[in-house]
From TrEMBL:
This is XdhC/CoxI family protein. It comes from the Bacteria. Residues 11-78 form the XdhC- CoxI domain. It comes from Nocardioides immobilis. It holds the Pfam family XdhC_CoxI. Residues 222-369 form the XdhC Rossmann domain. InterPro entries: MoCofactor_Util/Proc (IPR052698), XdhC_CoxI (IPR003777), XdhC_Rossmann_dom (IPR027051).
Length: 390
């Protein structure tokens, strides 16, 4: 929903009714991830995508039907279904798409969600998308990690127990609420969307009820150290991938906003001091990636000493030639880093794409980060067999 939220808010604030289809589960080589949304406005316009073009037409028609009836629908599209094949899902994937009517009446929490996303405050939205009792389908609650519902929340808190839990309303029973909140907080912590399956009353080992959780965590962070031309390209690509990008360098003449217009912030500080302060303040999480582009021992050795000892960092890469790499590894061993700690370092940074320019190098760095995140091999897909998406 995040990518279509600006247009959705325009329609919602204007009091218009919108049909919204959201991917809530994917199987095999599905082209779009869980959470991808498509809007159908009152004027007939379509915004967003649930399948990259494969089933948009079918979802478009279903959205019109749902807006007219007011009854949400969970629809599966896959090559095993004659209808899905007819509308073009030939990629071999399967999608579960939840289609609902969105208005100020049906989705009063939307304004609060948009405000939280704008502030960078973590918030999750849990929606019942399937249940044996149709009256449960469409029930929704907000989940906050601090367990606090604002005094001006747009929805009524059902009781003090739910307020303490950080739920904006009950999904039907204490058992359901407890299970969804616990699991929803886990998804929010990881920044992942997902569908949770329970029994009709929230039984952990049961089936029949599905709850989709949109996890709106702050953007993951990319910390780029070294205010050089390569850093500007890495910042540009990192921003494109959805990272909150920080460029840090100790030299104020180089670390300027004008040189890095696509970075979210530019910091003048010794890199190792900045990273240590961010870690101590709790602003490093398992989605944070670090790119060390200084290839200057006085900067990168103290910085890498810090970075390689922070287990939360998902990626630590350092630029430099083979000779620079060997010298850097020797200095890090002298500083007392273990072989396990050194094994976390991606150096020389990036995948072998034959990159020459700063922009090409930035693509190779981004490719390595993406491959590490999803377990990709970095090999050409044409040289591999089996599923494209895991």
């Amino acid at each position: 929903m995040r990518e279509v939220l600006p247009q959705l808010m325009k329609w919602w604030e204007a009091g218009e009714t919108v049909g919204m289809g959201t991917v809530v589960a994917t199987f095999r080589s599905a082209p779009r991830p869980a959470g991808a949304s498509m809007l159908v406005g009152a004027d007939g316009s379509a915004v967003g995508s649930v399948s990259g073009g494969c089933v948009e037409g079918a979802v478009y028609e279903l959205a019109h039907e749902v807006v007219a009836s007011g009854v949400p629908v969970l629809q599966r599209y896959g090559v095993s279904d004659d209808e899905a094949f007819a509308v073009g899902l030939t990629c071999g994937g399967i999608l579960d798409v939840y289609v609902e009517k969105v208005s100020q009446e049906t989705f009063p929490e939307l304004g609060e969600i948009a405000e939280a996303i704008e502030r960078g405050t973590p918030i999750a939205v849990a929606t019942v998308v399937e249940h044996p009792d149709p009256s449960y389908v469409g029930r929704r609650t907000l989940i906050r990690p601090d367990g606090i519902i604002p005094d001006d929340s747009v929805v009524d808190v059902a009781d003090s127990r739910q307020e303490r839990q950080g739920l904006s309303r009950s999904l039907g029973s204490s058992r359901i609420d407890d299970a969804v909140r616990d699991d929803g907080l886990g998804l929010l912590e990881a920044g992942h969307n997902g569908t949770l399956t329970y029994g009709p009353d929230g039984e952990r080992r049961g089936e029949g009820m599905q709850v989709f959780v949109w996890a709106f965590a702050p953007r993951p962070r990319m910390l780029v150290f070294g205010a050089i031309d390569f850093a500007a390209a890495v910042a540009r690509v990192g921003s494109f991938l959805g990272y909150h990008v920080t460029v840090c360098d100790a030299r104020p003449v180089f670390a300027t906003d004008t040189r890095f217009p696509e970075a979210d912030e530019v910091v003048v500080e010794w890199p190792h001091r900045y990273l240590a302060a961010e870690h101590e303040a709790g602003r490093i999480d398992p989605r944070t990636v670090v790119a060390v582009l200084t290839h200057d021992p006085k900067f990168d050795v103290p910085l890498l000493e810090q970075a390689l000892r922070i287990p939360e960092l998902s990626y630590v890469g350092a630029m430099g030639s083979r000779r620079t790499h060997d010298d850097r590894m020797a200095r890090l061993r002298e500083a007392g880093l273990t072989e396990d700690e050194l094994a976390r370092l991606s150096s020389p940074i990036g995948l072998d794409l034959g990159a020459r320019t700063p922009e090409e190098t930035a693509i190779s760095i981004a490719a390595e980060i993406v491959a590490g995140r999803w377990g990709g091999s970095g090999e050409p897909l044409a040289a591999r067999s089996g599923r494209i998406h895991g």
